[in-house]
Specification:
By secondary structure, the protein is of the alpha/beta class. The chain has helices spanning about 25-35, 70-75, 80-90, 95-100, 120, 125-135, 155-170, 185-190, 195-200, 205-210, 215-220, 220-235, 245-260, 275-280, 280-310; strands spanning about 10-15, 40-45, 60, 110, 140-145, 175-180, 240. Helix 7 (about 155-170) links the parallel strand 5 (about 140-145) and strand 6. The N and C termini lie far apart (about 70 Å).
Length: about 300
């Protein structure tokens, strides 16, 4: 994988990003197992220097190069400053990463990244790492995980949309936004609209109107309207619902990512006409998946309502 060698074979993979607690490590574990069952050789690369308990089989670990506790202790930095320093240190030591990855040629790569949002919206260290990987003939897609509980709060959902859009523009990779932990959404509270409203990011003016019913947000209606205008003007953000425990849900996400980074059309695995067609109609699969999740959510709400009536 020498830099700029056009003749070397392509390597495909995902960079898994998102806020703390969004389920990045759980996703990497689940996707590693899922892809392993369909015969894909998967290498997980931990790029989070604060990640100590990893449930997956980790082939390359940044903690062999640098750890967040050491940086915080020796340089007297806080967690955020320490993470930024770690990423800058990784950027300055590309040769270490290149040597480690070279041992797994022919594999599919999952990069488990830190959870500090600023690393994907403002800072350039990780962006430069991804750009360097591209020079080594890596074809990557960013999988941006967002906890689905934000759907239950219109104000938080607008902030999530802004963060997702900013991340997409800054990271500069093919992007797949994912609403994680969909199996827990019924525990977070009632949704103001159907689930497809959130996954497809439909007319956001309804969301602003819903916020206006809150006395606190009523004072910020004009600000919310302008934020919504920015999101709708770009028209880039949409989400795929994900339940890591559900194989069908994992398949939907995998197909969307394979389509985004070009794996479906590469020479890494023998593909049948059926596999090619399934990748081509990924949007239909996503719609079906959203309907299935919505149905489960509605059923759980109906059951909760019946229990309330019984208690009365």
């Amino acid at each position: 994988m020498s830099e700029g060698s056009k003749g070397s074979s392509l390597a495909f993979g995902q960079v898994v990003i998102g806020p703390p607690g969004s389920g990045k490590t759980t996703y990497c574990h689940g996707m590693q197992e899922f892809m392993g069952r369909i015969g894909r050789k998967v290498t997980v690369v931990n790029l989070d220097p604060a990640n100590e308990a990893m449930p997956y089989q980790c082939a390359v670990d940044i903690t062999e190069l640098i750890t967040l506790p050491d940086v915080m202790e020796n340089l007297k930095l806080g967690p955020n400053g320490g993470l930024i320093y770690c990423m800058e240190y990784l950027e300055a030591n590309f040769d270490w990463l290149q040597e480690k990855l070279a041992a797994f040629r022919g594999h599919y790569y999952l990069f488990d990244c830190p959870g500090q949002v600023e690393l994907y919206t403002h800072h350039d260290a990780l962006k430069n790492v991804f750009a360097q990987l591209a020079k080594w003939n890596f074809r990557l897609a960013a999988v941006h995980l967002v906890d689905s509980h934000y759907c239950t709060d219109p104000g938080k959902f607008i902030s999530v949309l802004c963060t997702s859009l900013s991340t997409m523009l800054h990271v500069e990779l093919p992007h797949v936004n994912v609403l994680s932990k969909m199996d827990l959404i019924e525990q977070y509270g009632k949704l103001a609209f159907n689930l497809d409203y959130y996954t497809e990011v439909l007319d956001l003016s309804y969301l602003v109107d819903h916020l206006a019913s809150d006395p606190f947000f009523r004072n910020y209606r004009r600000l919310n309207e302008k934020l919504v205008e920015v999101i709708e003007d770009y028209s880039l953000v949409s989400f795929i619902p994900l339940n890591v425990q559900d194989k069908e849900s994992m398949r939907q996400v995998m197909q969307a990512v394979d389509k985004a980074n070009g794996y479906s059309f590469g020479d890494q695995e023998h593909r049948s006409l059926e596999a090619l067609m399934s990748a081509a109609v990924g949007a239909d699969f996503q719609f079906t998946s959203t309907l299935a999740v919505q149905e489960k959510y509605v059923q759980s709400q109906d059951k909760a309502l019946e229990e309330e009536v019984m208690d009365l």
